[in-house]
Write the structure tokens for this entry.
Amino acid sequence: MLAKFGIGTLAVDGLTAFGLTSVTAMLVLYALEDRGPAYILAFAAACVVASAYGFLQGAWPFGLVEAIWALIAVQRWRKRMAG
């Protein structure tokens, strides 16, 4: 059984909280990418975590797309580090 928490009638299970945290991290890190290559790499990591969430939730298309975004972000990080 998954742990649930919430306020009033709004209950959020652990998996949903995990997903919300991962996509929020993606959003914040994407906005900060221009500050340096570390943010690009952190965005890639957040994409991996969001991908895991998608697969755990059973939404494999979401998981697959997030995994592809992670690969794209790693490629952008490599280019940024090279030049």
Q: What stands out?
A: The mean pLDDT is 91. Residues 43-83 form one domain.
